[in-house]
Amino acid sequence: MLRHLLGSLAIAFAATAMAAPYIPADDAQVLERLPQRSVPQFRELKVLRAAAALAPDDPAPAVALAAAYVRASRVEGDPRFNGYAQAALARWWQDPEAPTPVLVLRATILQNRHEFDAAIADLDRILKREPRHAQALLTRATVLTVRGRFAEARADCERLAALVPAIYAATCTAAIDSVTGNASRAYETLRRTLDGAVRVDGAGRAWAETLLAEIAHRRGDPAAERHFRAALDADPSDLYLIGAYSDWLLDQRRADDVIALLGKETRIDALLLRLALAQRASGRAEAAATIETLRARFEASRARGDSVHQRENARFELALNDDPRSALALALDNWKLQREPSDLRILAEAGAAAGDLAARDTVRRWLAETGIEYPAVARMVEPGTSVPK
Amino acid sequence: MKSWLAALAMLLGVFVAPAHAHKPSDSYLTLSVKEDTIEGQWDIALRDLDFALGLDANQDDAITWGEVKAKHADIAAYALSRLRLGAASAPCKKRVTEQLIDDHSDGAYSVLRFVATCAAAPKSLTVDYRLFFDVDPQHRGLLRLDYQGATRAGIFAADKSEQSFTLSQSSRWEQFVDYGDEGVFHIWTGFDHVLFLLSLLLPAVLVRSQLPGRRWQPADSFRAALVDVVRVVTAFTVAHSITLSLAALSVVTLPSRWVESAIALSVVLAALNNIWPVVYGKRWAIAFCFGLIHGFGFASVLADLGLPQESLLIALVAFNLGVELGQLVIVGVFLPIAFRLRATAFYQRVLVVYGSAAIALIASVWLIQRALDLKLIRG
Q: Mutating which of A22, A27, A31, A337 best tests the B interface, going by the most B Cβ atoms within 10 A?
């Protein structure tokens, strides 16, 4: 691990060394564009920073500031804001007995960094204090689902039912049912709940529609598009949703639609990956440059020892860098951390491309144990089909 | 809308949003060491500098070269005050030579070039890196260290801000010998470990007496004594090897004050056990249990020596073997002498009883000063 890491660090430096530092010719030359700070969101941050600085020992303004940073990290898609949020909570960061609102944010920040077990530990602490803490229950259910701990996640969703609007609890449960062998029931129940709900806020609708779309995607149901569209109507800026929709379009061989959807989006690695895949699929000349940018980003990320990019990095190695071995290593590392359908899929694809029987068995076991319905993945590891290559 | 619902929306949004957006904050530090001079180049993202120092003077959400130039002095002072090269007692003096711009995959970086002059050519370079950790604990400093044609890498994080790099161009074997040497040296000069071991070994050449009025009688055979010694030493070795490795690899860490106090306590108990025996036949079990704590003590010494990242395992194994070797020498000197003296009243009364009492007394003083953080005598 360490050697691998330091090796890629050397590569990252080599890539850095190629471009020579320079002195710009003109004072007016713009070197960097910042996120717009005239928007209310940034004015709010400024006020909150000042309030937190005035009362460094008071958790309330620190929590307000950290929450604003976490929101900014979502809107901007910039992980730096997660770090700023952590800094805002620095005084309580190591404290197991921190006030509950601090623990909620700490769990959120940890989970954004894919430190799932640490996040779960914090959520456990909150729920020990307040068993009916809705945010903590919902967050823990989601994290446990990502980790593949479905029984515990389901219990949290059930406890949630009495505490939040029906659509949240229904989506929570459907997210688990849909990956444990009850996809059609999950789909129907969630669709009915959504249709029957009187008022659903944007976030709730976007979440439910995204889940419906993803279930439909896995089952090869063309209704996926309708759900993706509805989700985008509810929340057009949801980055995960845009990524999931892009994946569906790519599977439908609609690369041009992906390029139109993502436009000039180059700041966010996960979306840049989809853009590169689409550009290559439709034979665009820009593909080469996009791939080089992605390569540099993934190398930089590996150099700092991050694990948050492994799934995308594996897809990059497999589909854009023709290196199934590296793809498989990344997919396996990622699988230790995350057990979502897309993690299973990249593991199956990389395993098949690398001709790796152990990976194939891992996927087969998961399919059998959870009962997840994912025909595209199941076909890749079917008994009797010899592993290619 | 209820307030928790807003928060819920935030959490959900964050959850489903990819965490892999943009690139997190990194800086790239390159150091080339030549004799007592270090040439440095430090690439720091303009976005990070803007957050810490406010580069965008006219608030138009764009950073121009003119705005960066105007802040050059501030940037250099801010960054260099958060980087220490060399030991804390005698840091190398840094001087900025030029400031440029470079474009990385995620945006423009300020390039700070500097020269540092050290008091002497360092054998091992300590780098203490603290840039941005206060405002962004997820920031990383990526170091490349060039020395005599070889390149090494390191990563600085908020919880790993100080690291040492050996600069002597030693071969792996030389490194092995170096760390082995340190291990021997440490067991010989680490009186607490030696006294603990001796306390457990003193009764090895004796057996408990069944006669009234006598505590001990001499062991019948050298072989029986040797078996007892081997048991104790092996248990101690296995135990401290386990915890030394765990601590050196950062799997488990304990606060050093706690560890040092527990080591002192272990010496007290082992010595008292010779005066008022509670455990005799199973002294190896004491050796094992407390050996676990002594291992953490060894680990802190190893940490002070500085663990070379690129040969962590060599250093760990060599240091441990050194400790064992030093221990064997102590046992090798102790056992024949003790065996010869075992029947004497001097050994049975003076050494075992008064000697143990003296050990217990010294260790009690250590215990008090370590637990209360006082300085009475050197431990």
A: A31
